[in-house]
Amino acid sequence: MNKTEKKIEQLELQIVEQKVTREKELLITEMKKIGIEKLPYSYSALKQFIDPETMDFHYNKHYKGYVDKLNDALSKKKYGDLELEQIIKTISRFDKTIRNNAGGAFNHALFWNMLSPEPKRLKGDLQKKIIKDFGSFILFKKKFEEIAKERFGSGWVWLVLTGRNTLKIMSTPNQDNPLMNIIEGGGFPLLGLDLWEHAYYLKYKNKRDEYISNFWKVVNWDFVSKLYEMKTETKLLESTEMKKIIQDATPPQFCSSSEISDYKELTSNRAIKSLYQNGITEILKEVFQEFWVEKQKGEMSGFYGIESEGARSVLNNLNTNFNTFCLLTKAVNKQIDEIGKPNKKFNFSKKEKRTIEEVQRLIKALDYFKGKIFVKENKDFINIIKVLLQLWERGQKSEDKSTSVIEKYFGDRIKTDKTSGAGMELDALSGIDVVYTLDGVKHTAQVKPFSGVKKDGETITILNTGDVKPYKVDWMIFINDKTEKVLIFKNEPIQNQKQYVFKDSSLIHEIN
Ligand code: MN
Question: Domain range spanning residue 343?
Answer without folding.
Answer: 257-375
